Amino acid sequence: MLFYPKHDLKTDCDYIIVLGALVNKNKISKSLQDRLDTCVEYLQEIDKDTVVVVSGGKGRGENITEASAMRDYLVSKGIDKNLILIEDKSTTTKENFDFSKKIIENASHKKIENLNIKVITTDFHTLRSKIISKKSGYKNTTFYTSKSNSRLAILNYTREFFALICNLILGC
Q1: DSSP one-letter string for 108-157
Q2: Domains identified in the chain and CATH numbers
Q3: What's the predicted TM-score (pTM) here?
Q4: Phi/psi at 17 (nearest 5 deg)?
Q5: How many CB atoms sit inside 10 A of residue 136's CB?
Q6: How far apart are CA 85 and CA 100, in angstroms?
Q7: pLDDT, tens digit, for every residue of 34-56?
């Protein structure tokens, strides 16, 4: 029941954006760990020098920002901290893309539409993320997904369905 299984591994990219997910106080969730492990896999197998933007602010029940937790996890897995940019203000997927766009454009001195961006998220989240990224001006975007927990598939896909409808109809 996967809309977006792992793909586009070998497509070159200028930047990677890892979309945030829940942090329980100071501990990353399984979903977020899976996204980060997918990022580590890409960096180790394809291009260890790709700059990564970790994107996620601080939500309810989180003692640190998702981005800070993500950076710490990647560094603990051997990723060079100098290749990690932090976007720690976002609280929605749209903000993930909008705020990451500013960071990438400032770092690269290029417009986002002229860069190849790889987005790492969970399979159930990819369709909506792809739509939001296009609305935010991303043109050359590929996705590399982590696999969702099959026990939570109905819950995750139902939540995404309603979030997608809200996004498409109400722009939320």
Answers
A1: HSS-GGGSEEEEEEEGGGHHHHHHHHHHTT--EEEEEEEPPPGGGHHHHH
A2: 15-170 (3.40.50.620)
A3: 0.85
A4: -115, 125
A5: 18
A6: 9
A7: 999 999 998 998 888 999 999 99
